[in-house]
Amino acid sequence: DLDAAKVRNHPMLSHFDYLFTNFSTAASYSGPAAIRVLRASCGQEAHADLYKPAPQQCYLFAQLASAGYTVQSLLNHDGHFDNFLQVVHDNIGVPDAPMVSNDAAPVAMHAFDGSAIKDDYATLSNWYAQRASVPGPVALYYNTISLHDGNRVSGSSLTSIDSYPQRATRLMSDFDRLADLIAQSGRRAVIVFVPEHGAALRGDKNQVAGLREIPTPRIVHGPVGVRLGGFAGNHGTTTVIDQPTSFLALAQLLSNLVSNSPFKPGATLAQYAADLPRTRMVGENEGTVTMQTAAGYAVKTPDGVWIDEQ
């Protein structure tokens, strides 16, 4: 998708302190993707298990709450489609965590169902202004659907696929602006960027462009980055994690950063990403599983048959 949209060289990607280049998001739809990141501490669960209760230690934000963080959540949409608000509530692990209002942010585009999608930077900067009134550290879960299929940009006649490069550029620029805002405020933060899944801008012999029923490696392979905002030390070059990884490695990296602050004098950033757990690239939706192979990938169909694809 980054290549198809010609945004692989966007500055945001070079500003990460840690970049996972072989990360499996596992899912190709938003609901399961949200559950997977919210329950990252237990790694890549089977799709069927996502909709069952999980041990408390699975919930990433519950662990952050126990470490002293005030947990909040924020969306740039209304969260009504596919009961997304409830998905977040059920899986954030902190039952009383507030969902912050995005009402003050302007509308940037509309979803396929006509509902409003708010401007990312305005939504986040408004939250950050309010965050100053909350004492102590805060852990925010933010979900944006600015890159979703079917979106229509306000004031534009472009189709969703044609507007994707524009939307991707704006999204990444907005996150860069947020990092700059945090740095200028004098606060310190760990900013984690996790795509839900790919957009399948280019199809293959099994799926046309935009279709995601089969969670192929192209779709579940997402660029995941971590950036330290307000870091006064030597960033050095980006630490690239190129071995096969998934949510367990991300949770471990965050655990390392929380338990041993990288903001203390003399911290060497690369050491926090040493020996992260590996996870083979596997994609899974209801009834369909894919696994990367040396020659391409294998697909397990809903009827239980494995098929090798080149």
Describe the fold and architecture:
By secondary structure, the chain is of the alpha+beta class. The protein has one domain (11-281): Alkaline Phosphatase, subunit A. It contains eight helices and 13 strands. The chain has helices at residues 11-14, 30-38, 60-66, 84-91, 120-131, 160-185, 217-220, 247-259, and strands at 18-24, 70-75, 107-110, 116-118, 138-143, 152-153, 189-193, 221-229, 239-241, 282-285, 288-292, 297-300, 306-309.
* Beta-strand proportion: 15-25%
Number of helices: 8
Overall domain count: 1
CATH architecture: 3-Layer(aba) Sandwich
Uncertain runs are none
User: What is the CATH T-level topology?
Assistant: Alkaline Phosphatase, subunit A
| Backbone CA Rg | 19 Å
What is the CATH level 1 assignment?
Alpha Beta
Record the strand order, biggest sheet: 7-8-1-9
What class do helices, strands and sheet pairing give? alpha+beta
Query: What is the CATH superfamily label?
Result: Alkaline Phosphatase, subunit A
Number of strands: 13
Keywords:
310 residues, four-stranded mixed sheet, 27% helix, Alkaline Phosphatase, subunit A, 13 strands, alpha+beta, four-stranded antiparallel sheet
Summarize the topology.
Elements: H1 11-14, E1 18-24, H2 30-38, H3 60-66, E2 70-75, H4 84-91, E3 107-110, E4 116-118, H5 120-131, E5 138-143, E6 152-153, H6 160-185, E7 189-193, H7 217-220, E8 221-229, E9 239-241, H8 247-259, E10 282-285, E11 288-292, E12 297-300, E13 306-309
Parallel strand pairs: 1-9, 2-5
Antiparallel strand pairs: 1-8, 3-4, 3-6, 7-8, 10-11, 11-12, 12-13
Helix pairs in contact: 2-4, 5-6
